[in-house]
Amino acid sequence: MERLPEFIANHSSLVLAFVVILAMLLWTLWQGASRGLKKLSPMDATQLINHEDAVVLDVRSDGEFKQGHIINAVNIPQKTLEEQLSKLEKYRDRPIITACRNGQIALGVGNRLRKQGFEKVYNLAGGLMAWEGANLPLVKK
Fold it and tell me: In the structure, what pLDDT confidence band is assigned to residue 42 with cuts at 50, 70 and 90?
């Protein structure tokens, strides 16, 4: 422990990189917790769909949606969410699971929905990649 200052002085770039990475990791964890958006595994999502009649909101483009999506998913591309928000009003009292290819874009959409007053908003952790990885079915048009 007495050699720690010497190590820091000799390897300042490594220590700085470590501090930056640690800060970014803590920031990401804090952001996820403070947003209040719960991430669901594919199995948890199927439970919510089957038992609480949850709606899956697929925020990918129309072309990606047609290549494969969760059955009965509603497709509103992330870029057009503000214009098409009225389509979601009928689902306001039901749980909404946001989904995209890997879960990152859908997380932001879920936060926007929360700001619009939707209370039961969840994120499909890992997105459709996790859904496919769990060998769950996709509908292809």
Answer: very high
Instruction: Let me know if residue 110 belongs to a domain.
Output: yes
4 catalytic? Reply is: no
Mean of all residue pLDDT scores within the chain: 91
Q: What is the DSSP string of the chain?
A: -TTHHHHHHHTHHHHHHHHHHHHHHHHHHHHHHHHT-EEE-HHHHHHHHHHH--EEEE-S-HHHHHH-B-TT-EE--GGGHHHHGGGGGGGTTS-EEEE-SSSHHHHHHHHHHHHTT--SEEEETTHHHHHHHTT---B--
**Can you give the residue range of the structural domain that contains 19?**
4-33
In-domain check, residue 13? yes
The CATH number given to whatever domain includes residue 80 is: 3.40.250.10
Residue 29 lies in a domain: yes
Q: What is the pLDDT of residue 8?
A: 87
Which is more confidently placed, 132 or 103? 132
Marked catalytic residue, from 37, 100, 124, 130:
100
